Structures are given as structure tokens and as C-alpha cells.
Amino acid sequence: MTLRNLALAASLLGSSLLWAQTPSVDGEVTKIDKAQGKITLRHGEIKNLDMPPMTMVFRVSETKWLDALAVGDRVRFAADRVAGNYTVTALVKAP
Fold this sequence. Notes:
Structural class: alpha+beta
Number of strands: 5
Distance between the termini: 32 Å
């Protein structure tokens, strides 16, 4: 196994562990602000944040995620408080 393949495998394993440990929620993209690294999501209850369903702005931990999204896209995401900010920590487009 090459070093590159090993790094990719470790990255995928880390992502799988994140999803396994973090509750995820369904949402819909209502606004994208690439310049600020923020996304506005209409979402269901986020239990780990004790947050009811609403529409709100989140920072994203990986700004590259915003390149693949458009307003109206359905997503599945995980969020947490990072440095005092509500932050999307994992994100995938929903089928």
C-alpha cells in the first residue's frame, strides 16, 4: 500500500468514525456565503445542541463543501459548537 493510499484510508476511516459518533440531521440549503465560509440551513432538531427545528446560519469546518452545493439542495449534516460558533462538522448531499 502506498503512502497516498494509506492516507486516503485513514481519512475515510476518520470520516466514518465522525459520522458514527455524531448525530446527524436532515436539512435544506437556503443560502451559501462562500466568502464568509457560512451556510444557511433549514433543519430538523439537532439533539446534541438541544436545538429545535429552524432556519439558521452555520460556519462550515471545510469551506470546499460549499463548492458542491446550491440553494435548494437537500443535505444530511452534523453540527457542533466550535470555538463558540455553531459549525457544520460533516456534510453530504442527500439523495
